[in-house]
Structure prediction request, 119 residues.
Amino acid sequence: QVQLVESGGGLVQAGGSLRLSCAASGRTDSIRYMAWFRQAPGKARLFVAAVTWSEGDTAYDDSVKGRFTIARDNARNSLTLQMNSLKPEDTAVYYCAAKNGPGTGYDVWGPGTQVTVSS
Prediction:
């Protein structure tokens, strides 16, 4: 079993930056992919960014390309999301997720951290 805990959320003005972190514990040797998702009030949970645990290959949703950067630290079993040039529409609960294979859905989730961007 893998456990995930996010931190770093908060309130920021539009144009500002925040850095989210996700600490992984337990059977971290089973992790192959990690990602960030977000869920705004009344909306579905949506993909933000992902990274392959071994190679560090990344993927981003178009809405955050050029503004957000995902990174992993294998030695510390941690994942980060650097968010720059934040917009009010980035307001959401941000979730860290993990999975152990390319053909499966993300099946381990953290409790989430709130990010609020004021205009």
Q: What stands out?
A: The mean pLDDT is 96.
